[in-house]
Amino acid sequence: MNKRYVLILISMVFIGSVKAQFEPVLICSTNVSDATGPNNSHKIAMRHESNDTIHIVFHCNDSVKYVRSCNRGLTWETPRNVAKGIYPAIDIDQRGYRHVVYQVYDTINYTYEVYYYCLDIRSPPRNISETPGNSINPSLVVDQNNVVHIVWADATHGPYRIYYRNYDFVNLSDTFYVSQYGSNEAIHTRPAIGIYEPNDRIYVAWQCYDPLCYTHYWIHYRYRETTAWSDVDALESNWLALGSPSLDFCHGEDELSACWQDSSSGNMEAHFHGGNGGGYNTTGYSTAPVLSTIGTTWSYLFWQDNDYDIFYHFYYFMSGWSSSTFRQRFQIEEAMFYPNCTGCYCIWTQGDDYPYKVYFCDFGLPVGIKQKTGNDLDLRIEPNPSNGLVKFSYILNFGREVRISVYDIRGKKVKTITSNQQNPIENSLFWNGTDDLGRKVPSGIYLCNLKIGGKQTTKKIVINRN
Fold first, then answer.
1. Which is nearest to 56 in space by CA: 250, 339, 277, 428?
2. CATH code for 379-463?
3. Among 133, 204, 367, 459, whose Cα sits 20 to 30 Å from the Cα of 382?
4. How confident is the model at residue 53 (pLDDT cuts 50, 70, 90)?
């Protein structure tokens, strides 16, 4: 079972045409239109699939705000101040500790510094950048050993460079110069960070503009494996503008997935790399792309367009790609800015003028199977969640073979159950929580696909062996 943002799927009902699980939910008001920006840092975090709590950070009134929902986004607590600062990022470690990084304005030196703070330990915020120059664009990720990895851009030594430190609650590492590539005039900004296969590599990606290089624009990356760093490499280079990279927050469960702005077509588009790819050309000017993906199973891609709409492009292995915009889907007339996502959860800033608003939406699994109607199949699953023994109930009103296929969340079939019952009454099949080899499946979320004749429907089942 995937250990990461699969956890957000536990409460989902499978629906067609990529309809949202809920309509947009208002979290709070804010005084800035970029409260949920920029796209290089993650504003949403969760920890365990059995936990209904969602954690969000954003900024308002020059302060970092923290807010949570304990029912998977249906309602939200009142936001509270974390510290003075802007552009925060958040992650949750194995213990459930909440880690936040953000930039703070130094009113003496008139520069920004990068600070780290743990919401669950009684210690003051810690200065991470510790330089006289301007330090901006912070981001962080926490590994399986609860070590916090932090990146940012700093202009102490001339044009901006990318730096890295890690912190294990005892020791703060030395500062490492990540962007060791290009001329002395190269400007390196917007670092994003994530953990990927193989071997839980810590990847850092960033944008670079080098006026002394023929290809001025780059999306660079390098990774840290154990304690050694790879050489700097490029995801893309071009003499036309590239920028604003973002990484999938997968915590080591998948290979590198990334996205960035790309104007090589002559128009700024959202470009996606890894996972299932995706994205498509628009007539507008596309910026601030973000993504979340699980291998070849599902992907969620969001970006902002220049008419202040947010586009989405979703993929699911059973149905392929679907796409639309927030304005079309939700009939929103106001401007929308800076989507930020984790799995199927997305937040954004909305409003034509002050006060702006922070919104949340759960988009569910992008399964292209129709919601049942009066003429479609009805599948009931009891109990759900289950500790292993499951009853599937359905109406069989024509004599056909009944087949129930159980998939894990990555799309791998784990069990096939068939029946040739012919009675035109309610019928049942049972599953004992094992795979086709008789092994108990682990706790997690599974997809149950019922097929009778040419009709089918899919619902989820949660196995909880705790």
1. 339
2. 2.60.40.4070
3. 367
4. very high
DSSP 8-state code for residue 77? P
Structure tokens at 19: 């309809």
H-helix segments, 332-371? none
CATH architecture of 5-362: 6 Propeller (2.120)
Report residue 387 CA to chain centroid gap. 29
Spans of all domains in the chain: 5-362, 379-463
CB contact at 8 A, 337 and 304: yes
CA distance 135 to 131: 8
User: What CA–CA distance (Å, rounded) separates 189 from 185?
Assistant: 13
Span of 220-224, 227-231, 429-433 with lowest mean pLDDT: 429-433
Handedness of CA 334, 339, 343, 345 (dihedral sign): negative
Indicate whether this model's pTM tops 0.70.
Answer: yes
Residue 401 dihedral angles phi and psi, to the nearest 5°: -65, 140
Q: How far is CA 100 from CA 55, 161, 181, in A?
A: 11, 22, 29
Tokens of 328: 């079309």
- H helix intervals, 269-349: 326-330
